[in-house]
Design a protein that fits this description.
Keywords: Oxidoreductase. This protein is 47% helix and 17% strand. By secondary structure, it is α/β, with parallel strands linked by helices.
Length: 255
């Protein structure tokens, strides 16, 4: 198993890409801590699914926009499994508003969930890695929109652009401690955040036509790359972004 015995924290781990990461990591032997804010029943059901398959998972309700809750999240993993090996900053939101339409509240909320949580989550995880020794890994679920403009969704793009620079800079800073930091940038993925697009046949036809592989990704396909990066097979990768987009950044402009 690629992740046997590794202690992994997944923010926003009870739905979408986060849920797929939890299942894939547990199937590869990881001990998983699932962070959630709402829908505790979904977390309970996910833990039961992991355990039924022979894996190990615990849940923690934490507001990732608050540094104290991020620390609680790390401590939950350490108390449950003795250490922390991987933090996956997965939780994210968007407002789908333009520069002219985005309110202060919209902007602050997106930045808090997407960017602030990744920054202070990385800080808390890095401190734990250094304290326990042996290095560690921080994976950020970013987006192709860290680099590719998406008119009408500007706060989201700004937050993901910030995540890209966080990864590049912190990856350099933390290398001396044996700590790696890598962004994963998915393109269009079939998750709840894209439910409105999937419900519109015209939008889906246009999107599929813009993707060289002709379809959206499944959450499990993102999770498979997470497992690879968290394994020993990717130990020389840091301060960079891995793009998983079906070729959309090369095949289209301005979606």
């Amino acid at each position: 198993m690629l992740l046997q015995g590794k202690s992994i924290v997944v923010t926003g781990g009870n739905s979408g890409i986060g849920e797929a990461i939890v299942l894939a990591a547990a199937a590869e032997g990881a001990n998983v801590t699932i962070d959630y804010v709402t829908h505790p029943e979904e977390t309970t059901a996910l833990i039961a699914e992991v355990e039924a398959a022979g894996g190990h998972a615990v849940g923690v309700q934490a507001d990732i926009t608050q540094a104290a809750d991020l620390q609680k999240m790390m401590q939950t993993a350490v108390e449950a499994y003795g250490r922390l090996d991987v933090l996956i900053n997965n939780a994210g939101i968007e407002t789908r508003t333009s520069l002219l339409d985005t309110t202060e509240a919209d902007f602050d909320t997106v930045m808090a969930v997407n960017m602030r949580s990744a920054f202070f989550g990385a800080q808390a995880a890095a401190r734990q890695f250094i304290a326990q020794g042996g290095g560690g890994l921080i994976l950020n679920i970013s987006s192709v929109h860290e680099d590719w403009p998406m008119p009408g969704n500007i706060a989201y793009c700004v937050s993901k652009g910030g995540m890209r620079m966080l990864t590049r800079t912190a990856g350099v800073e933390l290398g001396a401690h044996g700590i790696r930091m890598v962004n994963i940038a998915p393109g269009a993925v079939s998750t709840p955040i894209n439910a409105s697009t999937e419900a519109d046949p015209a939008k889906m036809k246009a999107l599929d036509a813009a993707i060289p592989l002709g379809r959206m990704a499944q959450s499990s396909e993102i999770a498979d790359v997470v497992v690879f990066l968290a394994s020993g097979k990717a130990g020389y990768m840091t301060a960079t972004t891995v793009v998983i987009d079906g070729g959309i950044m090369q095949g289209s402009v301005g979606l």
